[in-house]
Design brief:
With 123 residues, this protein is an alpha+beta fold. It has two helices and six strands, in the order αββββββα. It has a single domain, classed as OB fold (Dihydrolipoamide Acetyltransferase, E2P), CATH 2.40.50.140.
Length: 123
C-alpha cells in the first residue's frame, strides 16, 4: 500500500467517524436526518454549518449557509440579509422550514433557526 492510499483511507475513516457523530447528535435532539427529509414539506433538521457566505446581487442580498448532519447537506438561504448574528461556519444550529429542491439540491428559504449551545452538542 502506498503512502498516498494509506493517507486517503485514513482521511476517509475520519470523515466517516465525523459523519456518524453528526448523525448521532441529530438523532439525540429528535430532528430529521437531511437524507430523509421529504421535499415540499416542513422539516426540522440540525447539524453544523460548513460554510456561510453573502451572495450580493442587484436585487436582493442573500446569506447562504450549508448545514451538514452526517447524512447529507441542506442549503439555507436568508433573503434580504447581509449578516445574521451567530450564523457562522462551525456553529451548530437547529432549523425549521419548508424544504425545496433547486438545481438538484435541498434548500430551505428563510428558515427559523436556533443556535445550539456547545454543551448541548456534545455526545
Amino acid at each position: 500500500m502506498s503512502l498516498r492510499s494509506a493517507l486517503r483511507s485514513l482521511v476517509a475513516g475520519r470523515d466517516e467517524v465525523e459523519a456518524d457523530e453528526e448523525r448521532l447528535r441529530a438523532a439525540r435532539v429528535g430532528t430529521t436526518a437531511v437524507a430523509d427529509v421529504p421535499t415540499r414539506e416542513t422539516a426540522v433538521v440540525s447539524g453544523v454549518l460548513r460554510s456561510v457566505i453573502l451572495r450580493p446581487s442587484e436585487r436582493v442580498q442573500v446569506v447562504e449557509a450549508e448545514l451538514y448532519d452526517g447524512s447529507g447537506s441542506v442549503e439555507l438561504r436568508w433573503l434580504g440579509r447581509r449578516r445574521i448574528p451567530g450564523i457562522d461556519p462551525g456553529r451548530r444550529v437547529r432549523v425549521r422550514g419548508l424544504v425545496s429542491v433547486v438545481d438538484g439540491r435541498r434548500v430551505i428559504y428563510n428558515p427559523r433557526y436556533e443556535l445550539v449551545a456547545a454543551a448541548d452538542a456534545q455526545l
